[in-house]
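Issue: copy button drops trailing tokens. Both records pasted manually instead:
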Amino acid sequence: MQRRDFLTTQAQLGAFCLFGGPAMAASDFSFAVPAEEAPHEATFMQWPASRRVHHDRAFLEVLQTTIADIANAIAQFEPVIMLADASEHAGARARLTRDVTLWDIPTEDLWCRDSGPLFATTSAGKRVVSHIRFNGWGNRQVHKRDGRIAAEVTRRLGFDLIPSGIVGEAGGVEQDGHGLLMAHESSWVNDNRNPGMSRDQIEDRLLRAYGAERMIWSDGVWGEDITDYHIDSLARFTGPGRVLINLPDDPDPGDPFHMAALDTHDQLVAEGLEVEVIPEPGIRRVESSDFVASCANYYVCNGAVIAAQFGDTEADQIAQDALQRHYPDREVLSLNVDALGEIGGGIHCATQQLPAA
């Protein structure tokens, strides 16, 4: 395994202007969000810290250990920047390898895909933050600190911040880096994020936020989980027009998530995409009905795919084999991240990539 060098050294990153340029309109220049499998300079993550969010101290410590395990795995392949209040650094440092850098940016929860910055690259090769405003999944969770993270990272890097004009989370939209997006309506066309806005208005702003050309929608599920059914726990682009989707072998007609998943699958097939199905694990270490066991919620970094395994030997192996086929030039590392599944997410939800310059 080769850990990729910084394109910009850690010292340079730390020395960037603490006050980024003014927010710029999307019309000022053209930009696009690169595919996740494009080269990264680093991965951003967030340290879970809030007892208002995670009331059980013992479980919070399990979450912190799980986040450290993910960070340490990624750090074998590329630099990781962990965001945490300075008061949390000693505890975090004890769990993290030396290849993970700590930044003093206060956090509440761990979901960097949703509250962290969405990075894009301009036509001139400049990196910017395409800002989708985070409001705690429709004000369902405290986010005084997490709601500021994207802007704080933008300032520290000295990047320009470009407002998208919409509220939501990057985990609620999936993109192939070649002009195509997919999403569940429930995560966006929702009065808890974008009251009074039509699907067409939201689509137009999402396309501009990602520098994309076309969008595929399916219904999703409103109000049954905190995210209103983020797409990245179900289906992921693995290349232009190519999708890996996680479906139950025996769908329950009474389960709204199962029915919505089948609807999304059919919609993607009808749009002419190449869709491969991997099974949702049937045997799990955690039996709770609220547990999220998504083999699709993996993260692609330089040289590796960091994925979850759930204790179902057959399903876990099928997922690993599929990921190896879809990402043949990368090592597939499978981790036990059950603690994240217990609170409704996975590895992809906990990470956010900084594209290489």
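Record 2 (pasted manually too):
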Amino acid sequence: MTADVETRPAAPAARRGSSSGEVGDRGGVRVVLRYVLLVVLGLLFLSPLIFMIVTSFKTRGEAAGIPPSWIPNPFTTQAYESILAAPGTPVLRWFANSLVAALAHAAIVVITSAMAAYALARMEFRGRGVVFGMIIATLFVPPVILVIPNYLIVGELGWLNTLVAVIVPTAASAFGVFFLRQFFLSIPEELEEAARLDGASPLQIFLKVIMPLSRPALATLALLALLTNWNDFLWPVYVLFSPELQTLPAGLSTLQSANSVRYDLLMAGAVIASVPVLILFVFLQRFIIEGVSRSGLKG
């Protein structure tokens, strides 16, 4: 009887230990399954990029083969050599044109959007809400509708067949104004009041207080504007006529004809076009995440 009494209290503890062990095992299994799912999804989203890179190192025949293969056989850099050495496809010149146009476009978008957004976020004037509503309304207008009006304006200004035609017409960004306005509204007004008490002018407050605090949002908008201009295909085709003035997306389209498509050359060109974007994203991803997360806190 004594032995039975002494051993009874140990039973619940043993059950609790086994149940906690089962819970721990289930938690470990869930973590493993979660990471497996993330890896599978990551590979799924990266598969087009991987296939593009793999195809760029294939021969012309293998690149067009069906079914497609994931491992080049043989591995060759012939596509890169052809696309970089051919006199009719000045890829490096197209790359430079796209880089200049995208950087200039992004700079204008950031400057104009920041000034307009600050006025709409902080300055009191009659009709401010109406102006902001009209700017937002332009987001619902399909960009393709503006191709002909913009073409006529660019022609009247004498900008056809120049990089200015690719940089300026779309530099007034309604999205940029909306995005930065939301971010500016999340900045405490007490900081501006303190600067104003120290004798700072509105321009000094904008340049020395608001702009430094808005680096994440500015970097995000700059990257988005750069990508939009970098990937633009339709507008450069309309306004750039000389082969040496083409941007990279428009120039790469000349690699395919009505009768044949050089997939190896297209993929090699696409890899060259993707490198700057991937590098920028790696360096700016921290600012992008912070800018997007803070831009919707107030408004």
